[in-house]
Amino acid sequence: VNPDVIVVGAGIVGAAVADVLAAEGMKVLVVERAFAAAGATGAGMGHIVVLDDSPAQLALCAWSRRLLLELAPQLPDRCETERCGTLWVAENDAQLEVARTRADVLAQAGVTASLLDARTLADVEPALRAGLAGALLVPDDAVIYPPALCAFLLQRAVRAGASVLQATAVRSLTARTVTTDGRVLHARFVVNAAGVGAAQLSPELPVIPRKGHLVITERHPGTCRHQLVELGYMQSAHAVTGSSVAFNVQPRRTGQLLIGSSRERVGLDASINRDIIRTMLLRAIAFMPGLGELTALRSWVGFRPATPDGLPCIGRTRTGVWAAAGHEGLGITTALATAQLLAALMLERATHIDAAPFAPDRALPAA
Ligand SMILES: Cc1cc2nc3c(=O)[nH]c(=O)nc-3n(C[C@H](O)[C@H](O)[C@H](O)COP(=O)(O)OP(=O)(O)OC[C@H]3O[C@@H](n4cnc5c(N)ncnc54)[C@H](O)[C@@H]3O)c2cc1C
């Protein structure tokens, strides 16, 4: 019997889509080239964060974070869910003004946020350097271990009747077929959730890789309590061309610190760029001088599936294929809402948020 839906890719987005569609009673087949979370999902940081680069991004993040916080009590311990909050650190008064504006924008979307003055910031995060201007606190942001969340969603889909074919590369697809080596699979719906591999299968999708480096330290519990990000991160994340780094430090439950973040457009070159790592670590040490005393255990790279306007492609493309790809640095945060939005469009129901900004065939700025 043919499945109703074939989902290509078992990253966090494919897993979330499979979970929602299987719960709807559809017969789902997930086809994955390698194994679950083998792509960006296994390489990322797992910061569940509301960004507000555009109203559409804010709406998707806020909705998805709410879905994740609702799901949190059901998640197994290995997901390492921590509602640690984000502190957006301001270096000067001008940045604190930016923080004030962002607090208002977030509040309008129902996202709690408040400003901390310099003294309060120093009290809550004493490892930060002296002389910072303050911070924007977003207390309901969280941290999660992405491969474990991906596995949870996939297993729940399987319990609802989905099947997963791993180690099976998809060579081509159409609106109703998926071709692997030696097999043509048929379904009513085909969903392309192949992350940075999405455009190879559906050239109409404007998804390009943006490389990121991460570094993890030895265990040093208590160094910081929140995910710490510099306010300049938004500018860094915005720059579509060139390379950029920003201070971004995450406390893991193990007591380790996960240090990011960088962005480069170098295709799928997976080599470690020592200059980028050095710049990234110097930036982190500039904000947290004590980091220089810790040993870095490991560094690695991953590829964010980016689009020219910073929004994912969610919906039906002009070829009839369904897309759930292009989540750049927010796919862990936005996977649950992506899956709900895609399911509503597929099942021709009202959508919880406006789907138009995510239409795969929308007009895009030149890359
Ligand atoms: C360094 C870094 C830090 C990040 N930090 C964060 C963060 O803090 N918070 C956050 O929300 N997001 C973060 N992200 C982004 C997040 O990881 C991604 O947006 C998300 O993982 C994308 O999920 P995906 O399922 O679309 O893609 P992927 O996880 O890449 O999954 C796609 C899957 O498709 C498979 N595939 C590809 N081509 C084929 C094919 N032809 N046939 C079969 N299978 C195929 C791949 O093997 C892969 O498993 C970060 C990313 C990076 C790289």
Describe this structure in words.
This protein is α/β, with parallel strands linked by helices. The protein has 10 helices and 19 strands. An 8-stranded mixed β-sheet has the order 5-6-4-14-15-16-13-17. A hairpin with a 5-residue loop joins β18 (313-316) and β19. The radius of gyration is 20 Å and the shape is globular. It starts with a strand and ends in a 21-residue tail after the last helix. Residues 8-14, 31-34, 38-41, 43-47, 169-170, 193-197, 201, 212, 214, 260, 302-305, 325, 327-333 line the site of flavin-adenine dinucleotide.
Tell the overall outline: globular
Bound molecules: flavin-adenine dinucleotide
What are the segments in which pLDDT stays under 50 over at least 5 consecutive residues?
none
Largest sheet: 8 strands, mixed
- How helix-rich are the residues, as a percent range? 25-40%
H/E series, N to C? EHEHEHEHEHEEHEEEEEHEEHEEHEEEH
Q: How does the helix and strand content classify structurally? A: alpha/beta
The proportion of strand residues reads: 25-35%
Average pLDDT for all residues: 96
Main-sheet strand order equals: 5-6-4-14-15-16-13-17
* Cα distance spanning the termini: 42 Å
According to DSSP, the number of beta strands is 19
* Cα-based radius of gyration, to the nearest Å: 20 Å
Annotation field: number of helices? 10
Question: Short description, anyone?
Answer:
The chain has helices at 12-23, 40-43, 55-71, 93-108, 118-124, 146-159, 198-201, 233-238, 274-287, 331-346; strands at residues 5-8, 28-31, 47-48, 86-90, 114-117, 134-138, 142-143, 163-165, 170-173, 177-180, 183-186, 189-192, 208-217, 227-230, 244-251, 257-263, 296-306, 313-316, 322-325. 30% of the residues lie in helices and 25% in strands. The strands form four sheets. Strands 5-6-4-14-15-16-13-17 form an eight-stranded mixed sheet. Strands 8-2-1-12-19-18 form a six-stranded mixed sheet, with helices on one face. A three-stranded antiparallel sheet has the order 9-10-11, with no helix packed on it.
